[in-house]
């Protein structure tokens, strides 16, 4: 069992998250990796494999494929055949691969915003036009813009690919069956493929249940590339490794062909960590979810008490979407860094006036971050009132 309260010093470990603020007292709560030690079973398995001493090219273990298919059936009642799994070095590579192979030079991509920044950059990497459709936000509750997307697809008949994020980073939403069904319907009507990033699917809070997009209907199954990974859930981002489930044989062939010469092989340790995480670490994941829920609830309570900031409800992920527009800051990023907290700037997600906060850290760290944010905002209010 992991001690999630344990504060580990990541300074000087080549951590991108912590090295951004090397030599300062700023708490990094920006990029989506957790400040928790990974399950001991994974550490032990990697140590054992390291002792072998040879690290050549590896193939995907058949046991890993079997574990994945069994897990998908247990969690989502989703029957997936081994041959329908395509391994990838990471989700971002998969997004780029989809844009490369499914969208022609004169065709375009559509996505809903605010969204994980590689959704915005992947089409541009391949010189494909991107249509950005803002989500609907009423009283702090975000909903997927199905009607607006339908209108855009009808007007822009060259759209060939929807990049979908579910659970939705950064807004913390878990898309419901109605939203997914309607989205699939408009894509089917307009001959639009769906690439669904579901990397946070095992970080669903409050005993809610994730619905893979491809399970919604037969049409969804034919249209959808579903991308998943254990890297966020088990804090394995530095090791990499993900997979796509593609039911449609023609779509699968096209996707695989589009990755040739671009995507790299997975490493020995990618395969090992994926297998052990999925096979042996479910108790750890359940403990993690309980800890994240407590952190989420504490953060929501603290933010609610700070005038000028509000927090969207978090149903999944360990990422909080904070509305700081009422503070009227010229440079929100610099303001919070001066307060001693490093957040992700909203504009990178196409979210002006927002900041994203990663609360996957020991409670002690979260308390200190909340104290710093509250003090900084209170001082701002006091200064403005003079």
In short:
The protein has 386 residues and is an alpha/beta fold.
CATH class of the largest domain: Alpha Beta
Task: Give the distance, in angstroms, between the N- and C-terminal Cα atoms.
Answer: 52 Å
- Average pLDDT value? 96
Number of helices: 13
Low-confidence stretches: none
Strand order of the largest sheet: 2-10-9-8-7-3-4
Strand/helix succession: HEHHEHEHEEEHEHEHEEHHHEEHEEEH
CATH homologous superfamily placement of the largest domain: Type I PLP-dependent aspartate aminotransferase-like (Major domain)
- CATH fold-type name of the largest domain: Aspartate Aminotransferase, domain 2
CATH architectural label of the largest domain:
3-Layer(aba) Sandwich
Main pleated sheet: 7 strands, mixed
Can you give the helix content as a percent range? 40-55%
Number of domains: 2
Strand content: 15-25%
How would you classify the helix and strand content by structural class? alpha/beta
Rg over CA atoms, rounded to whole Å, is 21 Å
Total beta strand runs = 15
